[in-house]
Every structure is written in C-alpha cells, then in structure tokens.
Amino acid sequence: MISAAKQGLFRLVLNLSRSTLSLAGSDGLQFAGEELIKSSRLGLGRYPIGFRPEEVEIFAADASKHMAAVRDYDEAMSATGCEPLDNLAKRGRFFMLHQLLQTAYDRLGKTGDIAECGCWRGHSTYMLALIAERAGASDFHVFDSFEGLSDYGDKDAGGLAPKSQSDARARQKLFAADEDIVRSNLSRFPFVAFYKGWIPERFGEIEDRQFKFVHIDVDLYQPYVDSIEFFYPRLLEGGILAFDDCGSAGFPGARRAVEELEAKFKPRMFLQFPLGGAAWFK
C-alpha cells in the first residue's frame, strides 16, 4: 500500500502544481503521479507512461474557445457556485452528458421534454439548460427533495458506501441544497420547472408527457429503480436515459438498479463511461 509519507509528498506536489500555470507545475504533477503509481500496489511498476493534461483538447488552456462543452461546463459551474466540486471524473461525466443531450436534440429536435432526477446545487441542470436554450427550449422538469439523499437500503451496501448508520446519515445530509438558491441560479431559464419532493412522489404530475432525454442522478438503488420505471416507458424512440452514478464505488446501488432493469427494458444500447456514468439509448 502507499505509505503515509508518499501520500503526504504527493499532496504537497499537487498543491504546488495547482498554484502555478507553468509547464514545470504540470511536469511536477505528472512526475508525482508516475512515482505514486509505480510505487503502489496498484501500479507494480508497470505503468511508466504519464498523463499530460495539455495533450488532451479539453484540458488545453484555450479549450473554451472552441469547445462548447467546456464553455457550458465552466459557465454552469460558476453560476451555481460549484467550483470547489470540480474534478477530473466529474468533467468526464459532464462532457459525456453534454454530448448525449445534444445527440437527443439532433435525433428528435424539439419533440419531447427533458427531465432530471436529482439536481443538488444545479450544476448539471444549468449546463443542460444552456444546450436546451440554444436548441429550442424544450420543457425541462427537475425533481429533487433538496433535503439530501433518500434512505439507504440493503442494495446500496458495498464498495465505498457508508459502513455505519451515522456515516450514511452524514452523507445523506451532505447532498442537501437550498431550494431558493438553486431556483434563483436557474431563473434565467423560464422553461425549467422544479418539483420539490422525494422521488417518486411528484412523477404523476407529468405522467402524460413524453421525453427525449432524462438525466438520473439520485445515487441510491430505490430512487434509481423508481426513476427508470417511470421514465423509460415514456422515452421516445431515439431518446436517451443518462445515469450519473452508475460506476461510482460510493453508490453501488445505482449500478445494481441499472443492470437489473436493463434485462427488463432491453435498451438498444447500454453505454458505460470510463470515469463513471452510463446511458441507455432507446
């Protein structure tokens, strides 16, 4: 395993690298990552090739000038105060999410609504609304309790899920958000409607609608099941269901729900993303 001293050294190099925009900072971060991997049980010395962010377009300094996904991600992050939550895995999921909604618009145009189950502070909601605003402002239905996560069940155990009830309660509260602030941050988008309540309490209010795109980010097994069971039958042919938590070690119930219901609904394609997240294509 990685020693405490090596972990401390890596954190120090990481913090120093973040404090500078120089190439030396990037090289320092790369070197630290290589050494950490090679000296850990994970690497066993077999992974000498480093990851250089500047070699990937989305991490280039001028990426926002020519990539709408980067521009929208950054604008949404700033508008919702989510800068402290920015990380590589989240960017990977959100960039895929951006392309998925754009694909749904390319396939179905203005036909069908958009929905999101679980918005937390509204980062993904804002980013998706930017796309909708440009593409045709479909009705966008957003469901959240704003009180945190639902209750954990037996199928949410395992992986990096909380091991005790006290830890579970702490994580539940972590995902609470101020509804008024979220609404205010999204106020520029008149086509976004919020439905405060525990899933699936308010789904019945839109049971007569059809959807081209649904983003599910509810973390736990039962609300995932409830969301998929409600929305997939109402998804248009060519529509997309996106799952933020599928593949997250902290929320194994999400994958269990998606994989169990895949056998029932038999989507045309089940696409899984390398940094977490997945999608069904109908």
Sum this structure up briefly.
By secondary structure, the chain is α/β, with parallel strands linked by helices. The protein has ten helices and seven strands.
Major sheet description: 7 strands, mixed
Count of DSSP E strands?
A: 7
Helix share of residues? 40-55%
Order of helical and strand elements: HHHHHEHEHHEEHEHEE
State the fourth-level CATH superfamily of the domain at 88-281.
Answer: Vaccinia Virus protein VP39
CATH fold description of the domain at 88-281: Rossmann fold
Mean pLDDT across all amino acids: 86
Overview of the molecule:
The longest helix has 21 residues. The termini are far apart. Helix 1 runs antiparallel to helix 2 and helix 9 packs parallel to helix 10. 36% of the residues are buried. The chain has a domain of 194 residues: 3-Layer(aba) Sandwich (Rossmann fold). The protein is an alpha/beta fold. It is built from 10 helices and 7 strands. The protein has a 7-stranded mixed β-sheet with strand order 3-2-1-4-5-7-6, with helices on both faces.
Secondary structure elements and pairings:
Layout: H1 4-18, H2 23-39, H3 63-66, H4 68-79, H5 88-108, E1 113-117, H6 123-135, E2 140-144, H7 165-174, H8 179-185, E3 192-196, E4 211-216, H9 221-231, E5 235-243, H10 252-265, E6 269-272, E7 278-281
Parallel strand pairs: 1-2, 1-4, 2-3, 4-5
Antiparallel strand pairs: 5-7, 6-7
Helix pairs in contact: 1-2, 4-6, 5-6, 9-10
Descriptors for this entry?
7 strands, 282 residues, single chain, Rossmann fold, alpha/beta, seven-stranded mixed β-sheet
